Amino acid sequence: MTNAPRGQMVDLDGWDFGDVVAVVDQPEAFPAPEPTWQKVAVEAFVAGLSAGFVVPLVSLAWKGLRSGGSSPHVALIALEDARQLMKRDLLFFPESGPNVGDVYARHPLRRRDYMPYAGFHRLVLNEKSIEATRYLLSLGARDVEITWRESIGKAAKAEGGIGLPNVEDVSLTMGLGRDDSGKLAIRIAGAGKAKPLLDDLIWPDRDPMFKLMRTAADAGAEQFHFGIKTEQSTSVNAGAALQLQDLGFSLGGEYKRWEDLAFTVDATFAPAQ
Q1: Count: domains in the chain
Q2: pLDDT at 262
Q3: Could you tell me if 142 and 265 lie in one domain?
Q4: In this structure, is residue 175 part of a structural domain?
Q5: Helices 120-138 and 208-218: crossing angle, nearest 10°?
Q6: How far is CA 14 from CA 40, 48, 186, in A?
Q7: Do residue 97 and residue 124 come from a single domain?
Q8: Is residue 189 assigned to a domain?
Q9: 41-50 pLDDT, tens per residue?
Q10: Same-domain pairing of 125 and 191
């Protein structure tokens, strides 16, 4: 792998690259950020192969505090190292990546899967909605409708992109205009004749809403309505997006705040016999 100044030695089996990764030509040669960023060299020792190898990283952490007390941070990895890890199925990037200058965010449950930073909340929501549909069908749901909802008010549009005046203007509690009509994303009707067994779902054991689906079905509920949202993240948020863009990184599209995106789910179960 690439050469780099020695830093902290860590084993990939017991440590990971972090929630946010940026691909660069050479991490140690990355231009020193402004004084509000702290730059630290780290080495990740990747074991479990016929011959282990060392992956040099540079960790960037923003020292200034945002509202809520969290600070953006990103691990810089060389393009060749990222490709080698991907080839060995140790890290996973989108089909078009990894690419120099791009920033990726880690999947909240599959800890070695990375996705474009800007699409993090939308992609996680899409996955949750598909799993919610499949899970409801496995519980015997007869009809399932999933509606995509996205903020469209003036405040939402002002914060929809990352071209905001400064980090302090980004508030997680700001009121937003809502599109109450929504857009139908999935409709399944006339199911419930069988309960397929599923063993590839990852969210039912981790998301309380999925547990509520199971309880409602077990209790004989005939109708179920709920919303699916992603959660606030200290690593993937509008403030961090601004800082990463200021470093010259590409977020992979227009960043959308997590509060602005949601799915609503309506399910109908057949009456108990």
Answers
A1: 2
A2: 87
A3: yes
A4: yes
A5: 20
A6: 20, 12, 39
A7: no
A8: yes
A9: 776 655 544 4
A10: yes
SS (H, E, C) the chain: CCCCCCCEEEECCCCCCCCEEEEECCHHHCCCCCCCEEEEEEEEEECCCCCCEEEEEEEEEECCCCCCCCCCEEEEEEHHHHHHHHHCCCCECCCCCCCCCEEEEECCCCCCEEEEHHHHHHHHHHHHHHHHHHHHHHCCEEEEEEEEEECCCHHHHHHHCCCCCCHHHCCCCCCCCCCCCCEEEEEECCCCCCCCCCCCCCCCCCCHHHHHHHHHHHCCCCEEEEEECCCCCCCCCHHHHHHHHHCCCECCCCCCCHHHEEEEEEEEECCCC
Q: Which domain holds residue 203?
A: 120-269
Closest CA to 268 of 144, 117, 107, 97: 144
Q: Is residue 170 part of a domain?
A: yes
pLDDT digits (tens, 9 = 90+) for 48-65: 444 556 777 888 887 765
Residue 54 sits in the same domain as residue 161: no
Q: Residue 100 contacts by C-beta under 8 Å, 6 or more apart in sequence?
A: 23, 24, 25, 79
Query: How high does pLDDT run on average in the chain?
Result: 78
Residues 6+ apart with CB under 8 A from 127: 203
Tens-digit pLDDT profile for residues 220-273? 999 999 988 877 777 888 888 988 998 999 999 988 777 788 889 999 998 876
Structure-block tokens of residue 225? 């309505």
Global pTM reads 0.78
Task: Please say which residue of 74, 101, 128 terminates a domain.
Answer: 101
Whether residues 81 and 23 share a domain: the answer is yes
Whether 113 maps to a domain, the answer reads: no
Q: Do residues 129 and 36 both lie within one domain?
A: no
* 199 and 167 inside one domain: yes
